[in-house]
Specification:
The complex is a heterodimer of chains A (114) and B (115). Chain A is mostly beta strands and 114 residues long. Chain A has no helices and ten strands. In chain A, strands 2, 4, 5, 8, 9 and 10 form a six-stranded mixed beta sheet that branches. Chain A has a four-stranded antiparallel beta sheet with strand order 1-3-7-6, with no helix packed on it. In chain B, 35% of the residues are buried. The chains are: A mainly beta (114), B mainly beta (115).
Chain lengths: 114, 115
């Protein structure tokens, strides 16, 4: 498809397990963002990738969170030893290189930690 | 510390009337402002934006107004339609170097347009 693709769309896991969330951005977009939306909250910035530059990790809430982007395309967000407060919708977005904020979002991955 | 605030979590408007969604911000370094619309189980989609050098931008039924001195922006939808029912997020953008713009979002306002 032409849009940002995220998988899985829903993930239920037990506390303490590791999870991986995948994002496939729009072809040609060099910038990739991860956000999360907890219940009743706005979109919280997590991490940003731009081309081959070092990622901006300033939004990652703890060292249990990490992300990588292979070959400048697909990105994986990994959450280790999940906690109940990690339950949220994790949204991936992509954009062209220089951009004032017009991001294209995927449908999100809903994570529920029991 | 919320830098972008949407103080109304919800708004109900009659079809055909004007919807006004408000947003306040605190960071004077923001130089671009955007509105995103989100339907349930979908990702947010870009709606309209405004540069900090302007005070108004119009696109069809949607108009965004920016009052820099008050650090306030608003989205007007005229006339409102039932299909406009969604959560609207206000976002502000600031340049953080090397081609990187970071978006800060508000918590959203849920708009319900009543037929």
């Amino acid at each position: 498809g032409a849009g940002v693709s995220q998988s899985p769309s829903n993930k239920v896991t037990e506390k303490g397990k590791d999870v991986e969330l995948r994002c496939d951005p729009i072809s040609g977009h060099t910038a990739l963002y991860w956000y999360r939306q907890s219940l009743g909250q706005g979109l919280e910035f997590l991490i940003y990738f731009q081309g081959n530059s070092a990622p901006d990790k300033s939004g990652l809430p703890s060292d249990r969170f990490s992300a990588e982007r292979t070959g400048g395309s697909v990105s994986t967000l990994t959450i280790q030893r999940t906690q109940q407060e990690d339950s949220a919708v994790y949204l991936c977005a992509s954009s062209w290189t220089v951009n004032t904020g017009e991001l294209f979002f995927g449908e999100g991955s809903r994570l529920t930690v029991l | 510390d919320q830098q972008v605030k949407q103080n109304s979590p919800s708004l109900s408007v009659q079809e055909g009337r004007i919807s006004i969604l408000n947003c306040d911000y605190t960071n004077s370094m923001f130089d671009y402002f955007l509105w995103y619309k989100k339907y349930p189980a979908e990702g947010p989609t870009f709606l309209i934006s405004i540069s900090s050098i302007k005070d108004k931008n119009e696109d069809g039924r949607f108009t965004v107004f920016l009052n820099k001195s008050a650090k306030h922006l608003s989205l007007h939808i005229v006339p409102s339609q039932p299909g406009d029912s969604a959560v609207y997020f206000c976002a502000a953008s600031s340049y953080s170097g090397a081609g990187s713009y970071q978006l800060t979002f508000g918590k959203g306002t849920k708009l319900s347009v009543i037929p």
